Amino acid sequence: MPTTIRLRENGPIVVEGDDVRVIDWNGRAYTIEKHPIALCRCGQSAKKPLCDGSHRTCGFVGDAGADLPGERP
């Protein structure tokens, strides 16, 4: 399965794939307990860089979709 990165509306970045690892700045891999991997986008997670669902209560709005051809001014 190819790696897919999907932005959830008002939620995390979801990374799906068979061979995905999250590595810190020292080259150490995070322990990933469940797949797909959800990365925090709101900045409020106590488990950064992983999502803990804080976006549901902090008022995070992340609803800008990708531009389709011909939509940009």
Write the SSE topology.
Blueprint: E1 4-7, E2 13-16, E3 37-39, H1 55-58
- If you consult CATH, what is the topology? Ribosomal Protein L9, domain 1
- Low-pLDDT parts are none
CA distance, first residue to last residue: 35 Å
Rounded mean pLDDT is 91
The percent of residues in helical segments reads: under 10%
What best-fitting shape do the alpha-carbon axes yield? globular
Order of helices and strands: EEEH
- Largest sheet geometry: 3 strands, antiparallel
CATH architecture: 3-Layer(aba) Sandwich
Oligomer: single chain
| Radius of gyration, whole Å | 14 Å
What amount of the residues lies in strands? 15-25%
Record field, number of beta strands: 3
State the CATH class: Alpha Beta
Q: Assign the structural class, choosing from mainly alpha, mainly beta, alpha/beta, alpha+beta, or little secondary structure.
A: mainly beta
Q: Please give the domain count.
A: 1
Q: Quickly count the helices.
A: 1
Kindly report the spatial arrangement of strands forming the biggest sheet. Answer: 1-2-3
Q: Which characteristics define this entry?
A:
3 strands, 1 helix, Ribosomal Protein L9, domain 1, mainly beta
Question: Would you summarize the structure shown here?
Answer:
This protein has 73 residues and is mainly beta.
Notes on the structure:
This protein is mainly beta. The longest helix is centred in the last third of the chain and has 4 residues. Strands 1-2-3 form a three-stranded antiparallel sheet, with no helix packed on it. 10% of the residues are buried. It has one domain: Ribosomal Protein L9, domain 1 (3-Layer(aba) Sandwich), CATH 3.40.5. The protein contains one helix and three strands, in the order E-E-E-H. A hairpin with a 5-residue loop joins strand 1 and strand 2. The N and C termini lie far apart (35 Å).
